[in-house]
Amino acid sequence: MLTIYGCFRSRASRNIWLAYELGVDFKHIPVIQAGRLADPLATNAPINTKSPEFLKVNPNGLIPAMEMDGLVLAESLAINLFMAKKFGGDLAPRDLNEDALMTQWAIWAMTEAEIHTIQVLYHKVMYPEAQRDPARLAQAVEALARPFRVLDEALAATGWLVGGRFTVADLNMAEVIRYAQPVPELFEAAPRVKAWLAACQARPAFQKMVAGRNAEPA
What we know:
The protein is of the alpha+beta class. It contains nine helices and four strands, in the order βαβαββααααααα.
């Protein structure tokens, strides 16, 4: 059976969303970030990223991780590419060209977008007010203008990234771009990105994932 390690309030949300899209049964082990606990190694602490049993799965001490048929994977976007190809269907690549494009967009999401969108999330939402840095936020927003233009143009032909349909490439990208939603002006300047993200987030599997996230303690 597919096993996903990680809590909803982490990058594991990407893997859980995809599992819902694929309609596959999976075991969810809700590993949480050690930094959310006063003493992550306490005997009564919930399983977390410093727990010895989790470090046997991912020695990096990061979530998510995945286990299936003896294969252990870390890195959320790589996990999703594997899951899509393992279970097939419209979300998976139909040929080598689509496979290459989906890999390209996953790498692009990490290197061109997430390094900036995560700073928006930190300095606009997650960090306590006293720890937020307006300068870091402004730098991130400025840096995202170009990736948003690139993504907007990529969506011009069909409204999707690969193959003219919703695929794992869109899901992976949507979860990275979601972090920038607290800055609506980015989306106003890229209307196709705005419409595409709304379509992604309207999907029932995304809504199911969000419901699980909202039910999980912050």
